[in-house]
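Subject line: Sequence and fold of a protein, written as structure tokens
Area: Proteins and the way their chains fold up in space.
Start of record: The labelled sequence and token lines come straight after this line.
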Amino acid sequence: MTATIIDGKAVSQEIKEEVKVLTEKLNREHGITPGLAFILVGDNPASQVYVKNKAKACESLGFYSLTEKMPEDTSEEKVLAKIDEFNQDDRIHGILVQMPLPKQISEYRIIEAIHPSKDVDGLHPFNIGLFSAAKAWDEIMEKRLLLPCTPYGMMVLLDKYGIEVTGKRAVVVGRSNLGGKPTAMLLLSKNATVTIAHSRTANLAAVCREADILVAVIGKPLFIKKEFIKPGAAVLDVGINRTDGGLVGDVDFEAAKEVAGWITPVPGGVGAMTISMLMRNTLMAAEKKAGEINSKYETLNSKQTPKPEIQNAKKYDLEERTESFSKRVIDFVNDVPKDIVDSEIIKQLVRSSGSVGANYIEANESLSRKDYFMRAKISRKEAKETRYWLRLIKCNPAQEEERSALIQEATELMKILGAIITKSGGK
């Protein structure tokens, strides 16, 4: 058996293409360009290359970016002051301080100083707490939480290659705050049974052989041998180690691919996803900012905005409207050509969330206040998810008008259902 090679470069390019389209849309509709600020302290050659590549990605996607370079002996206070400056800058939606930092600077204090809404690396304790507290992956996606880029990229790769996570045994070799721990939490959110192994784990090879999904993030070149791998397992190699023979991962790739079912190469695997997920996080931070601006505008003008009359709503006012909307969504995604790369997964997500019509709200006295509120809340959630996935799905130019109309309809349904929730005592 030879493993399927998970092509991180190809998936990364798909993510960038999606981000570019949504960036243009954000700029066109809201006049907002995602902005990403880099802080580079010292002259570490690898760090300079990483920041240069990230800035190049920003340029290719239509982002605004700037790089603040500081000398090796820069004080922690100066770095903190620069972070505060970027926190206050409305042009900047994401702040990235390139690690590692010189010894006089505390990485923890630097990460903590970045405003959580601009923490596009997903490393702030507040953001880690949010996704760790989430009950499931669907909740993480619905709330659009900022996730650590490399673990986030791994989850996308598993999804893109149709590798089942729910109910599977996952072993993460490595317990770092940047890699192992968040990876374990995200796998857990998708209902995997997760073990975190490390350098002091007894019988490490035996523990790894139990894994349906094996993640190597230990930082030791070619550490994971063929004997560590369960036949048919998915092996994700996060390691990037420079050796005399070139870049290698934490997994002995040549031997492992003869046993594994899927495997990521180094380079070209998980590492290729990191910058793309950083770009996605920055776009999402900018979109959230646009949402805040719109919310403030709507609040200021609420007296001029007609409020839906929910109390006397007839069946066709809402029930048939949601039913019609659901049918139009399904028809739309079914018309998206199959030859458009990688739209099938998103199409399925649109189909499932587009079932808002299945949760009809009847504005009559037969429903208790509790039922009235719960049914409205479910429908609003589904309308919101539908709108999100409609924005991501690829379609032909001829379908853009229909997609825009569906997104607008989803937004209107969310407003109406929000009014129902408020009226029934919800929030």
